[in-house]
Amino acid sequence: MNIQKSLQSVGQVLVKNSPAILTGLGCAGVATTAFFTGHATLKAYKLIKIEEEDNDKILTGQEIVMLTWKIFIPPVVMGATSMACIIGANSINTSRNAALAALYSLSETTFREYKEKVVEQIGRNKELQVRDLVAKDRLDKNPVGDRTVIITGNGDVLCYDTLSDRYFRSSAEKIRQQVLDLGYRLRSEMWLDLNEFYDAVGLGSTKLGYQMGFDLDRTRNGNIEVEYSTHLAPNNEPCLSVEATVYPKHTR
């Protein structure tokens, strides 16, 4: 029974990590193919020389192929196997990404329906109060303390970006204007990386910013959605919490 469970566990690990395993095998196979090819080429060269010396003539292309083709079978097989591993890894990743995209779309739809129903049941004002409480909890859990506050040159109000967990100084008017400007671009370009927003407000690019962004097809009236709420930071300084609604780039 324990052996069966162990085998099942090993099988699950192999399936879970199959793209990485296949990619590793493919990379190793490429290196091995190069080695086999070099070895086969040297062996074929020597064989051709011996044949030409024994027959005192220069072999034709067809004669060379007939003489040496078997020598190149191992590198050809290894090369084909390596390609199969790499293609297999890519196929598995593509299938998994498609499944994740479908799951994300379902989750997004469910969340939007839930959010609309909450607003319908408790009212817009109470829903905003709940959202403000969530933003306040985030500020309390991520206090400014001794952390670096980015100076953007756009204002002196303490601001907090919830997605990248960064504090910066700007102004509500400036941020709203930058969001409006980006909205015009979004309506013409259909998609904008989150880093476009970060660069506009003076925060600078992040790794997350390349993976997420604004999708015109998912916005309301073609506008970039940014939620704002004002609270007292743990150091008792007024702080504007900023949260942009973004979507994964791979779902486009």
Describe the structure.
The protein is α/β, with parallel strands linked by helices and 252 residues long. It has 2 domains: 101 residues, no CATH class; 128 residues, no CATH class. Helices cover 63% and strands 14% of the residues. It contains 8 helices and 8 strands. Helix 4 crosses helix 5. The radius of gyration is 30 Å and the shape is elongated.
- Could you spell the SSE succession in H and E letters? HHHHHEEEHEHHEEEE
Give the beta-strand count. 8
Q: Mean of the pLDDT scores?
A: 80
Helix coverage percent = 55-70%
Structural class: alpha/beta
Number of helices: 8
Total domains: 2
Distance between the termini: 46 Å
Q: Short summary of the structure?
A:
With 252 residues, the chain is an alpha/beta fold.
List key phrases describing it:
252 residues, alpha/beta, 2 domains, five-stranded mixed β-sheet, three-stranded antiparallel β-sheet, 8 strands, elongated
How are the secondary structure elements laid out?
Elements: H1 2-16, H2 18-55, H3 61-68, H4 73-122, H5 124-141, E1 149-151, E2 157-161, E3 166-170, H6 172-189, E4 191-193, H7 194-201, H8 207-211, E5 212-215, E6 226-232, E7 238-244, E8 247-248
Parallel strand pairs: 1-3, 2-7
Antiparallel strand pairs: 2-3, 4-5, 5-8, 6-7
